[in-house]
Design brief:
Length: 172
């Protein structure tokens, strides 16, 4: 019985360690109408992936604003995502069908802001990850290709041409 208990605790320890090691990196926030502006800083070597942005109530539509440091061409700020409305009881969209939510990925450096809407609750789910520099089309990613050796059980043999004998028919 004691051995069984020890084995149980060892198994529970490993499962607990695995759950901590592989914890979900997604974060969720609820923004009420009386909250302050949610500001998320995305460093230069990171990116932010928004997978869910919904709005319940309110008459105005919530948006995700992105400010790129040093971008003076467009005033520096743009809206990249609008909230998916899940309650159509108020506002101009009262008779519309349900909406489809979109996703967006924002590369750093950037400042992401979500302003509260009076009378609405906003829900956002996002994840910030480090950009490992995949080197995808620009060549400046810093990643180098990995060489994968291919082993063959037999040495490569190149076939050499040989003459095919032609058999002439013999008369009977």
């Amino acid at each position: 019985m004691r051995t069984l208990t020890v084995r149980f605790f060892v198994a529970a320890f490993f499962l607990a360690a695995a759950s901590v090691a592989f914890a979900n990196p997604f974060k969720s926030k609820i923004i009420s109408g009386s909250d302050s502006v949610l500001e998320i800083i995305v460093p230069g070597d990171h990116f932010m992936k928004i997978t869910n942005f919904t709005q319940d109530g309110g008459t105005d539509r919530a948006v995700v604003e992105v400010t790129l440091p040093g971008d003076t061409d467009n005033g520096g700020t743009t809206n990249v995502l609008t909230a998916t409305r899940i309650d159509f009881s108020t506002g101009a969209n009262a008779q519309n069908a349900p909406e489809i939510g979109n996703r967006v990925t924002i590369a750093g450096p950037a400042i992401v802001k979500i302003r509260p809407i009076v009378g609405a609750k906003l829900f956002i789910t996002y994840k910030k990850d480090r950009d490992e520099g995949s080197g995808g089309g620009g060549g400046g990613g810093g990643a180098s290709p990995t060489v994968i050796p291919i082993f063959s059980p037999t040495p490569g043999v190149t076939p050499s041409p040989t003459a095919t004998p032609f058999i002439f028919p013999t008369p009977f």
